[in-house]
């Protein structure tokens, strides 16, 4: 990846530009100066996906420029990916080159790793997977000391586990996370740890309850649950819900109730628009919500959900799109002020940025 300028001066300049952009977007709301949390310059990305490109009977890892499916960029190593991914790339390639069972109609490889050293490889095929493939894949998984998943139309064969395990420390406590294949996880583990610590500090020690929307696998839920009386958390993805429930149990956190609802559906439930069977047995009236935590997709919160958050004294908001964050703050600015803000450089060497704000009722 020689096209990526992995030098500190170029990175510092880019981070300065991102900070200026966030400052500009939040200026209409009299936001304080953002705290800036930088990223390692390389080996920060814990997951990677490659297409395979065939030349002269050899398959190469390949990526493509946006909009161009026919001009591959052939890759031997990938400096922005974790050291574990880079260590696996060459022996995996050698294995498929030496085995027809592994290479035949293989078209995509995905890596999922953790700071704790765990690794899962997914191999995707344009053909049914047979016993010969499984025998070769089992040997490969043992040789590389990874879990491995084979995918083809109508098939998903798991060798080992279909998740990786991560460990992150927040305020002196270590939290264990299962991160399933195919489910969303924060790609930059080091910066994710900084985000968790910032959110933990921003929420503070509370004697009331927390509502969390878009909780995913419980990435923020686990540390934030230790700061409040109890938590009602929502997530719509089944795989993320199952992972979150396992993570709560693995970490012996028992003050969280998790329901599989979208943020929009929970808004309807809290507004009395319609009942949901998935809320049966949940006594919403028993909660004394003082804070709401949201980590929405790039589109931000829809207007109704944004309006729902207005009810809370404190809104802790993590965003992967500062433009939609600014739009949501504009809707809330008449009742809430920005007390804290931060930039988390999850995506160095790109224009993308993650940001966070704490909004407090005026």
Automatic annotation (TrEMBL):
Query: What broad class of enzyme is this?
Result: transferase
Q: Which UniProt keywords apply?
A: Methyltransferase, S-adenosyl-L-methionine, Transferase, tRNA processing
Q: Which reaction is the catalytic activity of this chain?
A: uridine(341) in tmRNA + S-adenosyl-L-methionine = 5-methyluridine(341) in tmRNA + S-adenosyl-L-homocysteine + H(+); uridine(54) in tRNA + S-adenosyl-L-methionine = 5-methyluridine(54) in tRNA + S-adenosyl-L-homocysteine + H(+)
Q: Which InterPro entries match?
A: MeTrfase_TrmA_AS (IPR030390), MeTrfase_TrmA_CS (IPR030391), SAM-dependent_MTases_sf (IPR029063), TrmA_MeTrfase (IPR011869), U5_MeTrfase_fam (IPR010280)
Any idea which GO molecular function terms this record carries? Answer: rRNA binding; tRNA (uracil(54)-C5)-methyltransferase activity, S-adenosyl methionine-dependent; tRNA binding
Secreted in keyword set: no
Q: Name one Pfam family in it.
A: tRNA_U5-meth_tr
Q: What is its EC number?
A: 2.1.1.35
Residues at which S-adenosyl-L-methionine binds: 186, 214, 219, 235, 295
SUPFAM superfamilies attached to this UniProt entry? S-adenosyl-L-methionine-dependent methyltransferases
GO CC term, one of those recorded: cytosol
One Gene Ontology biological process = tRNA methylation
User: What HAMAP family does the record tag this protein with?
Assistant: RNA_methyltr_TrmA
Please give the family membership noted in the entry: Belongs to the class I-like SAM-binding methyltransferase superfamily. RNA M5U methyltransferase family. TrmA subfamily.
This molecule's function is given as: Dual-specificity methyltransferase that catalyzes the formation of 5-methyluridine at position 54 (m5U54) in all tRNAs, and that of position 341 (m5U341) in tmRNA (transfer-mRNA).
PANTHER family listed in its UniProt record: TRNA/TMRNA (URACIL-C(5))-METHYLTRANSFERASE, TRNA_TMRNA (URACIL-C(5))-METHYLTRANSFERASE
What is the official name of this protein in its record?
Answer: tRNA/tmRNA (uracil-C(5))-methyltransferase
């Amino acid at each position: 990846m020689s096209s990526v300028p992995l030098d500190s001066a170029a990175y510092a300049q880019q981070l300065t530009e991102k900070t200026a952009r966030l400052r500009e977007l939040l200026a209409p709301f009299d936001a304080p100066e953002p705290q800036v949390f930088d990223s390692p310059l390389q080996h920060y990305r814990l997951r990677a996906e490659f297409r395979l490109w065939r030349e002269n009977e050899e398959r190469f890892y390949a990526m493509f420029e946006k909009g161009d499916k026919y001009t591959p960029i052939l890759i031997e190593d990938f400096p922005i990916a974790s050291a574990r991914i880079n260590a696996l790339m060459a022996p995996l390639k050698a294995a498929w080159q030496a085995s027809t069972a592994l290479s035949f109609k293989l078209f995509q490889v995905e890596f999922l790793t953790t700071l704790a050293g765990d690794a899962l490889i997914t191999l995707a095929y344009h053909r049914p997977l047979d016993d010969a493939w499984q025998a070769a894949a089992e040997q490969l998984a043992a040789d590389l000391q990874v879990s491995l998943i084979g995918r083809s139309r109508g098939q998903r064969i798991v060798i080992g586990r279909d998740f990786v395990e991560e460990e992150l420390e927040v305020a002196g406590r270590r939290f264990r996370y299962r991160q399933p294949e195919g489910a969303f996880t924060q790609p930059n583990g080091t910066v994710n740890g900084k985000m968790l610590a910032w959110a933990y500090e921003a929420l503070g020690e509370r004697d009331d309850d927390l509502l969390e929307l878009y909780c995913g696998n419980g990435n923020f839920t686990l540390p934030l649950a230790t700061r409040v009386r109890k938590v009602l958390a929502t997530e719509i993805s089944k795989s993320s819900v199952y992972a979150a429930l396992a993570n709560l149990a693995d970490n012996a956190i028992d003050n969280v109730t998790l329901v599989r609802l979208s943020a929009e559906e929970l808004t309807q439930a809290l507004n009395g628009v319609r009942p949901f069977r998935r809320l049966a047995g949940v006594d919403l009236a028993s909660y004394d919500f003082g804070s709401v935590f949201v980590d929405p997709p790039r589109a931000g919160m829809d207007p109704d959900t944004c309006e729902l958050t207005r009810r809370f004294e404190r809104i802790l908001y993590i965003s992967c799109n500062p433009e939609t964050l600014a739009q949501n703050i504009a809707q809330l600015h008449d009742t809430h002020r920005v007390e804290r803000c931060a930039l988390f450089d999850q995506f160095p060497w790109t224009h993308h940025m993650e940001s966070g704000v704490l909004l407090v009722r005026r």
